[in-house]
From TrEMBL:
This is Uncharacterized protein. It comes from the Archaea. It comes from Halorientalis persicus.
Length: 89
């Protein structure tokens, strides 16, 4: 049996889920890092970035992949500005 790597968002309020199964179960896992990023961006657009800034993307095994602020900064185009500012020095 091969283990499939999956990704999920976690934060101080628990794990961010994206699909509910009935009343008692929900799926927090994404098959790719890109799917997880896109989901977070959509949630932030709908509910505000502040709600998600403390979240961390992890992969199965609890390994940290990246922080939500990195995704949300990229979404806003601020990373391009930051990279330009650093390269101008």
């Amino acid at each position: 049996m091969t283990d499939r790597e999956q990704y999920y968002w976690s934060g101080s309020n628990g794990v961010l889920t994206h699909t509910k199964f009935g009343e008692d179960m929900a799926n927090p896992f994404f098959d790719t890092e890109e799917e997880a990023k896109n989901f977070l961006e959509r949630k932030a657009e709908a509910h505000g970035e502040e709600r998600y800034k403390g979240m961390v993307l992890r992969k199965t095994g609890n390994d940290k992949v990246l922080e939500a602020t990195q995704v949300l900064t990229d979404q806003a185009g601020l990373s391009d500005w930051g990279n330009k500012a650093v390269s101008d020095d």
